[in-house]
């Protein structure tokens, strides 16, 4: 959306332009009424655009891979263990960590809306909030995984966690082989966002 | 409410649409929609469950036909209108992309820029002291009750009537259904796991499991 450029004739663009005008007018109204501090709106956006994202969760997973005592604390009380690394708060007030093993692969969905662990993963991607993922993750998780390019072994059980309350889930993927002796920063490079939702696995080194 | 937002198990939506670049926002207004919704939520004029209820009770065709942040904006406008924070005329002008001179509204607690980091880091925990002992324990077999409340609920249709196993006990949490009506009522919260074959019959893979997080009043001993 480029400001000051009004030559779009594509209907899609004019619709988006309509929403731009509407939301801009709404913000002006709310600021005028004294309900909203526009600098706070800026700060909220900036937080999720630049500071909070899957790199937070990757640090948690890498620490759990590298430090068995931390992994135990993460299993016992994920909210507290994640707060040790400085991540807490909105949409992550009640965290649970799900550890994948050769026998069990966890995958997270919110069929009712878009519940997602913001402090460790940031805002959810569009597909996570979309009807196809919400509808299908619970009834055909293996078909959904295949669309993400993930094929689970025959012997692996898929456990889908539908986050229907305020509990937020972080999947801890299996640590890839061949990473002995890696430090946490290097391990974190293997932890993808999808691996922490359960629609992916960790990168191979 | 048996709304179209309760999507688990619906068919016909096609494949998951993956984007290669995955922009966080797809238009400038989506950024502001996020920020405005969070900023207005911080005023305390409504709670998170009232906000979800406002989105999920939009007319079904509107819900299905709207993008994610368009749903947020529609719900935000509805919540503000219901509470008398904005007038119908003011919203009509907003929909034309214009703003009439803003009439003064009620005094709200305004989130300031300098408070944002602290407010986000604190969040809004919904755990509460439990009034009594947990009615179920890990390993218990429980049935999701066959409930169809007309108001807000977090019990997905696809588990109702099915028997599962308690695999998590989370203490007492604010009960979403009551909270959406403005009442603070704490209930024990459980994670209940169901067999996919039981939920979906021949369509379910007998190896797989699906869980939901369910408050005590959604469940009965099986």
UniProtKB/TrEMBL annotation, chain A:
Binding site for Fe(3+): 110, 113-115
Signal peptide start and end residues: none
EC annotation from Swiss-Prot or TrEMBL: 4.2.1.84
Keywords: Iron, Lyase, Metal-binding
Domain Nitrile hydratase alpha/Thiocyanate hydrolase gamma: 18-199
Class of enzymatic activity (EC top level): lyase
InterPro entries: CN_Hdrase_a/SCN_Hdrase_g_sf, CN_Hdrtase_a/SCN_Hdrlase_g, CN_Hdrtase_asu/SCN_Hdrlase_gsu, Nitrile_hydratase_asu
SUPFAM superfamilies hit by this protein: Nitrile hydratase alpha chain
Catalytically driven reaction(s): an aliphatic primary amide = an aliphatic nitrile + H2O
Pfam family for this entry, one: NHase_alpha
GO MF annotation: an example: transition metal ion binding
Similarity section: Belongs to the nitrile hydratase subunit alpha family.
Entry protein name: nitrile hydratase
Originating organism: Rubrivivax albus
From TrEMBL, chain B:
Top EC category: lyase
NCBIfam families the UniProt entry points to: nitrile_beta
Family in the record: Belongs to the nitrile hydratase subunit beta family.
UniProtKB keywords: Lyase
Any GO MF annotation of the entry: transition metal ion binding
Stated role: NHase catalyzes the hydration of various nitrile compounds to the corresponding amides.
The organism's taxonomic lineage, starting at the top: Bacteria, Pseudomonadati, Pseudomonadota, Betaproteobacteria, Burkholderiales
Reactions mediated catalytically: an aliphatic primary amide = an aliphatic nitrile + H2O
Record domain Nitrile hydratase beta subunit-like N-terminal: where: 1-108
EC number(s) given by UniProt: 4.2.1.84
Ranges where the Nitrile hydratase beta subunit domain occurs: 126-220
Encoding gene per record: nthB
Protein's name in the database: Nitrile hydratase subunit beta
InterPro entries: CN_hydtase_beta-like_N, CN_hydtase_beta_C, CN_hydtase_beta_dom_C, Elect_transpt_acc-like_dom_sf, Nitrile_hydratase_bsu
Pfam family, one: NHase_beta_N
SUPFAM superfamilies hit by this protein: Electron transport accessory proteins
